[in-house]
Design goal:
Blueprint: H1 3-6, H2 15-35, H3 44-74, H4 79-101
Length: 105
């Protein structure tokens, strides 16, 4: 049996099928472009998080180190360490607030 005897048109000649194929192809292309990564390299949010973490750790470690040195030379143990650790924490949070208030580039 060939196509003429079956009484049906070939599938490729139906306008509705062709239209559906075109819409499916366009939808697949839109989905591929939507799912592609937008940022090449390191993500901006990842860099910002790393910067905040570095500020927090640096403020605490710097305050603790300076306080320990003051305690060693002045003999005020543990008060120099505690005061400078607190000041390092204040500076770290101040820097984190400054970073969070900046407008995104």
């Amino acid at each position: 049996m060939n196509e003429e005897q079956s009484g049906r048109e070939p599938i490729g000649e139906d306008a509705r099928i062709d239209s559906l194929d075109a819409r499916l192809k366009a939808a697949r292309e839109r989905e591929e472009t939507r799912n592609k990564p937008q940022v090449q390299g390191t993500d901006a949010n990842y860099r910002l998080g790393s910067k905040v973490l570095a500020e927090l750790i640096g403020g605490l470690a710097g305050g603790a180190l300076i306080g320990w040195v003051i305690d060693r030379f002045a003999g005020t143990s543990p008060w120099g360490l505690l005061v400078m650790l607190f000041l390092g924490m204040v500076v770290a949070f101040r820097n984190i607030i400054r970073i969070s208030n900046r407008r995104p580039d």
